[in-house]
Design goal:
The protein is α/β, with parallel strands linked by helices. The protein has helices at 46-53, 70-80, 97-107, 121-133, 212-231, 237-259, 264-284, 288-297, 304-324, 331-345, 352-369, 385-391, 403-412, and strands spanning 35-38, 56-62, 84-85, 89-91, 114-119, 159-163, 175-180, 186-191, 199-202. The chain contains 13 helices and 9 strands. The termini are far apart.
């Protein structure tokens, strides 16, 4: 015995061995996850996996890049020899309800036994929505959160999700984001536990050759999701561990990818980080950045990742100022921010206060170096900022932010 108190005599939250206080566990839940196959070269397994699972297959792909690639040509030729394959659904931008309804109507009689979505986050979301609506009656508008008047039945065709970008983590989530862009537009989710893909197959080789602009936007989306879920009021020990590891791998891999887009090992680090961001956002929730991005994405054609990336540093700066005004009330998120700061700065012994400030400083520096767009670059007028701030909820943000503070975030990147 080390002379310490017996477990039943210790005060609540005390760590054996003198480790100090430990936060009490709050109730949390971890939902469904897909079967995950990760690694360079695993894409070659896909035709065989599909053949073992189904005879009639509906592919959902992007507008051009994958279809016209060597990998795409090999895939379609190989798969066509093994199964009955419908004409692929093409998704060029963030999917709309009308596009989902049209795809379902065109392929309902084919009765696909499996949907295979290969592409970026928008393609995976479209595949998720199409797979679900093939088992539903009526329009997807009827079951969209905040738009429809009923819940989805929770049935779906099986879905294999194969990302060709590293950003949204949609391959691991239960929701499909659909948009209608315009002044009265929206960006809403079709959501149910049953909509988690059956298989997520992640091959970093598929991301080699992505344009730098897309690599940056997707990467910053993943980083914002990791940060927001880590700081979220809905975070739990499991999501914290995954988010922190995801950020560490992102910080290690992302700069290497920007220097050499053909570095498959670095691409793998970023793809893994994006996967972790999908898992953590699904179980911890997101915060102010994604609330603002959701409102903007429904009304202007600004890429989602670009919105998140350009606002992330300013949102962190304003939030830190608010929390530091009442440090006792925000001890946990400030401690978490210090860990993030030390990680991003690669300075494990940096003092807490300095490490907290390193977070927005680091992100602002990246914003400049990566030449992330300003809101005005995408047609957003200064007079629009008040409406954006007013129309964006805070979801699971670690501290309250006023409309004025949200306006400050937006104005800094206008």
């Amino acid at each position: 015995m080390d002379g310490g108190a017996a477990p039943w005599d210790r005060p609540p939250g005390v760590v054996p061995g003198g480790g100090g206080a430990m936060e009490e566990l709050k109730p949390f839940a971890i939902g469904r996850l897909p079967a995950i196959r990760f690694g360079a070269g695993v894409f070659r397994e896909l035709p065989e996996r599909i053949e073992r699972r189904a005879r009639r297959v509906l592919p959902v792909v992007g507008g051009r890049s994958f279809v016209e690639s060597a990998a795409g040509a090999w895939f379609f030729e190989t798969l066509g020899e093994r199964v009955e394959m419908a004409e692929p659904v093409r998704v060029a931008e963030e999917p709309s309800p009308e596009e989902v309804d049209a795809a379902v109507a065109a392929h309902r009689d084919f009765e696909p036994e499996l949907v295979v979505a290969i592409g970026g986050g928008s393609v995976l979301d479209a595949g998720k929505a199409i797979a679900a609506m093939l088992t539903e009656e009526g329009s997807v508008m009827e079951v969209l959160e905040g738009v429809g008047k009923r819940e989805p039945m929770g049935t779906t065709r099986p879905l294999f999700a194969v990302p060709t970008t590293a950003g949204t983590g949609s391959e691991a989530t239960k929701n499909a984001v659909l948009s209608r862009v315009g002044r009265d537009g929206f960006k809403k989710s079709l959501r149910h536990d049953a909509f988690v893909p059956e298989l997520a197959l992640l091959d970093p080789e598929l991301t080699v050759g992505l344009p730098r602009e897309l690599t940056v936007a997707c990467g910053m989306d993943a980083l914002s999701q990791l940060m927001e879920s880590y700081l979220s009021t809905g975070a739990n020990p499991i999501t914290d561990a995954l988010a922190l590891d995801g950020m560490a791998r992102f910080a290690a891999g992302f700069p290497r990818v920007l220097k050499d887009g053909a570095d498959v090992a670095a691409r793998g680090q970023v793809m893994y980080a994006a996967l972790m961001s999908g898992i953590t956002l699904a179980h911890a929730g997101l915060a102010a950045i994604h609330a603002l991005a959701g409102y903007i994405g429904g009304r202007w054609r600004m890429p989602h990742g670009a919105v998140c990336g350009t606002l992330l540093g300013e949102a962190m700066a304003v939030s830190i100022r608010r929390m530091r005004a009442e440090p006792e009330g925000y001890r946990v998120p400030l401690e978490k921010l210090a860990r993030v700061g030390r990680l991003l700065a690669a300075a494990p012994r940096m003092p807490d206060g300095e490490a907290v400030e390193a977070v927005p400083n680091f992100l602002r520096e990246w914003t400049q170096r990566l030449e992330l767009p300003r809101l005005s670059d995408h047609g957003i007028a200064r007079d629009d900022l008040a409406g954006i701030a007013r129309g964006s909820g805070l979801k699971s943000h670690p501290c309250p932010l006023s409309e004025g503070e949200l306006m400050e975030v937006l104005a800094a990147r206008w």
